[in-house]
Structures are given as C-alpha cells and as structure tokens.
Amino acid sequence: MIKPVADERGLTLKHRRFGDTESWELVMAGHLSPGECWDLWRRKNPDLDSADARLEVARHLHEIELRRPLETLTDPARREQARQTRDWFRAVLLRSSPT
C-alpha cells in the first residue's frame, strides 16, 4: 500500500507493498505527477541516490513479474489492472524525473 503521510519532513509516500495501484491512481487522478513521486522519495531519502532507487524499483518489478506472471491471474479484471500497473511503473515512473 502506498499512501501520502504528513511527517516532520513534509508529505511523504509510505510504501507497504510495491505493486499496489495507489501511486498510479494518485497520478491518474491528478493528485501527483510522476516527478512529484520522485521528489517525495528524495525528500524522505536525502542521502540516497535516485538512480539506485530506480534500479531497485525496476528489480522489484522484475521479481513480481517472475513470481506472478500475468498469465497466472485468472480474473481478467485483476490481470488487466496488474498489466496496467506494471506498464505504468515501467513506462512512466521509471522514465520520469523529479520536478
């Protein structure tokens, strides 16, 4: 689960599980841009390299795809949601830059 949470550093995204659609839904609803997602990450992790974060997101996405191929999802709606979410992480979030 990814949810915006206010803390001493400002608004951050808390990640409980990668792969849920909340960040995608926040961007699709116009609440955040992909760049703003990276800005929030950078504020939360000022000592970490964003290139390493992108590699970690890509690695985790690859592991999900290996563990849970789309073909194994029997519910067509869940399969389509998973495909759209994975495509969004790959095509939008991983190619975006901070604002």
Give the tags.
single chain; 99 residues; alpha+beta; two-stranded antiparallel ribbon; 2 strands; globular
The chain-level mean pLDDT equals 75
Mass-distribution shape: globular
- Looking at how many chains there are and whether they match, the oligomeric state comes to single chain
Cα radius of gyration in angstroms: 14 Å
Share in helix: 40-55%
Unreliable sequence segments:
5-13, 15-21
Gap from first CA to last CA: 23 Å
How many structural units, i.e. domains? Answer: 1
Task: Write up what this structure looks like.
With 99 residues, the chain is of the alpha+beta class. The chain has one domain (2-95). It is 53% helix and 12% strand. It has helices spanning 22-28, 34-44, 50-67, 76-91, and strands spanning 2-7, 10-15. The protein has a two-stranded antiparallel sheet with strand order 1-2. Strand 1 (2-7) and strand 2 form a beta hairpin. It is globular. Mean pLDDT is 75; it is low at 5-13 and 15-21.
